[in-house]
Structure prediction request, 334 residues.
Amino acid sequence: MNAVLACDLGGTNLRLAAISHEGEILTRAHRPTPRAQSAEEIFSLIKEAALECRGKLADGFSVTGIAAAVPATINFERGLMLKAPNVPALDGFEMRTALEAEFKLPAILENDANAAAIGEGWLGASRGIRNSVTVTLGTGVGGGIILGGEILRGVDGTAAEVGHICVEPHGVPCGCGSRGCVEQYASATAIVRLWNEFRSAEGMVERLREDSEMSSYAIFEAARNADPVALKVFETMGFYLGIAFADLVNILNPEAIVVGGGLSNAWEHFIDPVKHEIKARCFKEPAERVRVIPAILGDDAGLLGVTKLLVDRQTPGLDAPESFFGLIDSGDIG
Prediction:
């Protein structure tokens, strides 16, 4: 009858849930992420949603900790948000310390794409698979890598930045400072740019209302209706995504690549060129072994991932946040 308060903070939405140690979602709360000027304003909203979830819990449940998935590069051991491009007010914010102080509970912080990979590995598409890559296709392109059953963070905490694999050396400039990153060809913002470029180059008339604001969802709907420009957009997306996936297969030799995020709904329109590029660019055995499969947990992947992290690190008898994480940092438990 133990539960974790799990938070998934996105650039657009804040989701919070109370989740049992077995992965059952017990209660939920949702808020739009504010365009805040201060970390305190965002943290106040997290507190509000967490208290709502805890208040909805049935009698008999004990909350053992709070865990947060965030769209940022982080220092995992310190619980520090280093850089949050979509929520810049949180740059440098010591989220874990703030959560511990507010709730008097053990807390943990993880990058959102890593959390999604852990969640899919626990209860989702890659359950039972010890070597996998999870790629999230949304406003940007995120990634989480699990090798030998362990998440790969890298020495600086920035491993698995799949979205910044270069697929076009002289391509579109990227916000990371490089050029031709796969994020510039396989994200929601990228397909809007591709749509406009192709429509202009081919002189084709937009089938959507001229006064409507173009969106990735509108392009997806156009592809479902066999619009030739929209179909070309997703074919191009699949081509570049396939190059990035081929790199991952050649370097990591994973058993599976799990594809999630909102753009994964367009699966049927991009998966064939993805598989074609993997087959064309990889060694035969790993290309035949790897399975490219859709994620199944949706928006719950990150929530479940941070829950799993915290549950795995909990040790009976440690009820003080300081001693709990002191042991983790020193390597005595894990």
